[in-house]
Design a protein that fits this description.
Number of helices: 10
Strand content: 5-15%
Number of strands: 3
Distance between the termini: 36 Å
Strand order of the largest sheet: 2-1-3
Shape: globular
Structural class: mainly alpha
Largest sheet: 3 strands, antiparallel
Length: 277
């Protein structure tokens, strides 16, 4: 019954969306409202009103701030949905745990109840379906991680002056963590950044975005009207709008980065956070 009801809901929703698209302007119509009003205003007024050379970032972070905020919220909800579907329940611990001596490669097996070596010392825990350790891959990947992270921060910080922004920078930062997990193992990644920390950072990004917009209301402006914070920041309204775009880009980057790692951790390990890919 539920399967048929779900199918009917999807079909009806799809038909409604197809019907609504009939009222949209023709594709590429130069006389559409977007072409005759919005586009011209953004192209000619962005620098004057926001002091942001990157028009795309000005549109996403300022002119169309509501939409971008809800996009960020959708990303956060996607990560939470994956967590609650895969990672919210305790899994049975394996009956046998395996540890490898990092210097010699000797593998020891311990059954439940047996005292195991200390993690992070001369031994490291490995997966039951163990893939041979590759010294070159792991070392090269670990060397690349900080450079990838610096580039990700650069993309976020300069997103309103050059191509980039919170979404792009967040993906690059997440790629650094995923590279660590793929070149080593899931436990190494979890030891560097826990699932609790990832969840807090993912939520903090959304809170930073919405909170900065709400702060503008306290100072007499509209929600996400960054120019209202000019007095608080000690700068003119145009510079305040530029700074506001940077703040919300940081929030977007936090959420995107954390959510991607959350999704990887849960999907790759089916919510167990032990073996991974």
């Amino acid at each position: 019954m539920m399967k048929h009801l779900s199918l009917a809901t999807v079909v009806i929703t799809g038909l409604l969306l197809i019907y609504i698209t009939g009222s949209f302007p023709a594709w590429g119509d130069p006389n559409s409202p977007a072409s005759t009003h919005l586009s011209n205003h953004y192209i000619t007024k962005t620098m004057e009103e926001t002091s942001v050379p990157n028009i795309v970032s000005a549109v996403l972070g300022d002119y169309r701030g509501f939409d971008t905020m809800f996009e960020t919220t959708v990303v956060f909800c996607a990560g939470m949905a994956v967590f609650f579907m895969l990672g919210a329940y305790k899994r049975d611990q394996p009956t046998v745990r395996q540890f490898r001596h990092t210097e010699t490669g000797v593998v020891l097996r311990f059954r439940n109840g047996a005292k195991t070596p200390r993690e992070g010392g001369a031994f490291e825990e490995i997966d039951p379906t163990w893939i041979p350790y590759d010294f070159i891959v792991s070392r090269v990947a670990k060397l690349m991680v900080p450079f990838i992270q610096i580039f990700g921060l650069y993309v976020i910080a300069h997103g309103h002056h050059s191509p980039g922004g919170g979404f792009q920078g967040g993906v690059i930062l997440a790629a650094a963590f995923l590279l660590l997990g793929l070149s080593h193992n899931m436990r190494t990644l979890i030891n560097r950044v826990s699932n609790k920390a990832l969840g807090l950072m993912s939520a903090a990004g959304v809170v930073l975005y919405a909170g900065y917009g709400a702060l503008a209301m306290i100072y007499g402006g509209n929600f996400l009207d960054y120019s209202a914070l000019a007095g608080l920041l000690g700068m003119d309204p145009v510079a305040a709008r530029s700074f506001g775009i940077l703040v919300i880009e940081i929030g977007v980057g936090l959420t995107v980065m954390s959510t991607m790692v959350i999704i990887y951790n849960n999907v790759a390990s089916v919510g167990r956070y032990d073996e991974g890919l």
